[in-house]
């Protein structure tokens, strides 16, 4: 009886020792640095949509990056960490199999960024997206197709995308970026509209968006935006035409070659505010939050005219006579000296 008990204990001891040995080996394998083809170079690894942890581990093993794929898969099942998000992952030198599993489980995919400056129009947005290889196909889609896919339930997309820097992953599409920018513009515009000043000559928030786009294109100086918005608001209230060049340029489309001529100003288009009353039918660019704020909180004053001074800022006038003098001074006399339409860059 005693001999049988001692034999059982010996067998149990051997089993426990083996289990402990396997556990120690497993612990070592999971915590040792994984193998990279080049020890000092990180590796970008793509996980395809629908891939399981077992499949990915097997692929890593086939590339001689992971030594024991079944061990990592088993640990993932035991620890409840089998979830894996598709995308591109950065595998760094010195990372362990456990760290890689954590990265997969968190979905820590590589994030990229794309920037859309304030004042760009819709066509510029599409061209910018098309420069990114994974978004290139967006240039093949029609405006209607893009608006439908991005859930933009508007007549025209101009003005409805918020200028900003957007992060994206390998799984995103160009339409995803457009949709995100549209949702943000809706949010920014709605919030600003709720806090608007009283007595504005806008029928709705869309009118304010149109005005904001004009203000955005008229000046590169943030501090001037409320003043310029004030001029345009007073002109609307007095039933004066806006007479603003950026709307004319937008209406010319691809035919604009860099200079506005008298013929351009005389040509009747829906966007020629020298010929039409009130606002143009759509925004002419994607306005910033600051431009929207300026359109909804214009600066009080008496000026009805302004002209570019040539240093990026503007000269404001109350009367047509004063304005004409300013035009002669800044647009004619100074243009040949040191004229520029945008502010000088800060050092």
From TrEMBL:
Site (Important for catalytic activity) location in chain: 218
Protein encoded by which gene: mltG
GO MF: lytic endotransglycosylase activity
Protein name: Endolytic murein transglycosylase
One of the Pfam families matching this protein, by short name: YceG
Protein source organism: gamma proteobacterium HTCC2207
Role: Functions as a peptidoglycan terminase that cleaves nascent peptidoglycan strands endolytically to terminate their elongation.
Entry-linked HAMAP family: MltG
Enzyme Commission code(s) on record: 4.2.2.29
Family note: Belongs to the transglycosylase MltG family.
GO biological process, one term: peptidoglycan biosynthetic process
Catalytic activity of the protein: a peptidoglycan chain = a peptidoglycan chain with N-acetyl-1,6-anhydromuramyl-[peptide] at the reducing end + a peptidoglycan chain with N-acetylglucosamine at the non-reducing end
Annotated GO CC locations: plasma membrane
Keywords: Cell inner membrane, Cell membrane, Cell wall biogenesis/degradation, Lyase, Membrane, Transmembrane, Transmembrane helix
Top EC category: lyase
């Amino acid at each position: 009886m005693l001999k049988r008990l001692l034999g059982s204990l010996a067998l149990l001891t051997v089993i426990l020792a083996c289990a402990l040995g396997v556990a120690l080996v497993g612990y070592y394998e999971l915590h040792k640095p994984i193998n990279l083809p080049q020890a000092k170079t990180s590796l970008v690894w793509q996980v395809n949509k629908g891939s399981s942890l077992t499949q990915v581990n097997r692929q890593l093993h086939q590339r001689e990056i992971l030594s024991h794929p079944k061990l990592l898969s088993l640990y993932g099942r035991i620890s409840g960490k089998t979830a894996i998000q598709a995308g591109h992952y950065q595998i760094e030198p010195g990372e362990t199999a456990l760290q890689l599993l954590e990265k997969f489980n968190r979905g820590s995919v590589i994030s990229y960024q794309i920037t859309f400056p304030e004042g760009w129009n819709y066509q510029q947005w599409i061209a910018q997206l098309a420069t990114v290889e994974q978004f290139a196909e967006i240039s093949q889609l029609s405006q209607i197709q893009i608006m439908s896919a991005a859930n933009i339930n508007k007549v025209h997309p101009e003005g409805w995308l918020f200028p900003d820097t957007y992060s994206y992953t390998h799984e995103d599409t160009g339409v995803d970026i457009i949709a995100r920018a549209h949702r943000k513009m809706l949010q920014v515009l709605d919030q600003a509209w709720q806090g608007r000043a009283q007595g504005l000559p806008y029928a709705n928030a869309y009118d304010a968006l149109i005005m904001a786009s004009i203000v955005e294109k008229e000046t590169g100086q943030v501090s001037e935006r409320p003043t310029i918005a004030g001029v345009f608001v007073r002109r609307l209230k007095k039933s004066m035409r806006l007479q603003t060049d950026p709307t004319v340029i937008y209406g010319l489309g691809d035919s604009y070659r860099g200079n506005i001529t008298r013929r351009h100003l005389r040509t009747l288009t829906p966007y020629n505010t020298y010929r039409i009353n009130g606002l143009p039918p759509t925004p002419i660019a994607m306005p910033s939050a600051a431009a929207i704020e300026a359109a909804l909180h214009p600066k009080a004053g008496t000026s009805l005219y302004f002209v570019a001074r040539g240093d990026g800022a503007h000269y404001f006038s109350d009367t047509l006579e004063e304005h004409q003098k300013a035009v002669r001074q800044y647009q004619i006399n100074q243009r040949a000296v040191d004229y520029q339409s945008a502010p000088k860059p800060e050092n």
